[in-house]
Design goal:
Arc Repressor Mutant, subunit A; alpha/beta; Rossmann fold; 5-stranded parallel beta sheet; 4-stranded antiparallel beta sheet; 41% helix; 2 domains; 226 residues
Length: 226
């Protein structure tokens, strides 16, 4: 099974722990957030699916879903509502917001796992059609090979695009020059380490204020830090 990343958002910590444990047993990679505000700060575009409670703190799950569906980088992330609000009107409201499924509490873990598998199977093709990695106003569409900065197209060379995609998709990971060479120039003739440095310098300049997020770890390599 592919290594799907799932974000569980619920203000009941014990429920989050139960869902995280059982989903991880199934082979998923799982993170938890105890409020919509916390979840929105965790770069939700990175997740394959979001399990979202409706009744939470200041921001409801419905409001969070509206925000997710309004942004290109998160619009295609599947959302399953898990909530005690189980009237027909609530269900219709959730589905009208673009939710992919709606599970009423109390629910069985078997039911949640079955719904998760079903939604991931149904949406996997859609997600692949527009695979996006993004950080704030910097966005890369890996299918169309387009980069945008604050919504405006940004011209990158093929190697600049591939380096940025690698660093953005693995934030806080430091890649050595050898690793970058292997991933970006894997099938080409010998390339000097200096080539990496030149591309990184140009990339920092082109992406403006986000250039400072591309960090250098002397003796180790490069990474993208939030």
């Amino acid at each position: 099974m592919a290594k799907y990343k799932i974000l569980v958002v619920d203000d009941e910590e014990s429920l989050c722990e139960i869902l995280q444990f059982n989903l991880e047993v199934e082979g998923y990679e799982v993170d938890v957030a105890y409020s919509a505000e916390q979840a929105l700060g965790m770069h939700p575009e990175r997740y394959s699916l979001i399990l979202l409670d409706v009744m939470m703190g200041e921001m409801s799950g419905f409001r969070m879903a509206q925000l997710l569906k309004s942004k290109p980088e998160t619009a295609k992330v599947p959302v399953i509502f898990c909530t005690a609000k189980d009237t027909e009107d609530d269900t219709v409201a959730g589905l009208n917001l673009g939710a992919d499924d709606y599970i009423a509490k109390p629910f069985s873990i078997r039911e949640v796992l079955a719904r998760v598998r079903s939604v991931l199977r149904r949406t996997a093709g859609t997600q692949e059609e527009s695979e996006v990695v993004a950080f704030e106003g910097l966005s890369l569409d890996l299918r169309s090979k387009r980069c945008t900065l604050d919504g405006e197209p940004l011209a990158l060379t093929k190697k600049e695009f591939e380096i940025l995609a690698l660093l953005l998709a693995h934030r806080s990971t430091i890649f050595s020059r050898e690793e970058i060479l292997h991933r970006v120039w894997s099938d080409e003739v010998i390339v000097l380490d200096r080539t990496i440095d030149v591309n990184i310098t140009r990339l920092r300049r082109k992406i403006g204020r986000y250039g400072e997020h591309i960090v250098t770890r002397l003796g180790y390599g490069y990474g993208f830090e939030e």
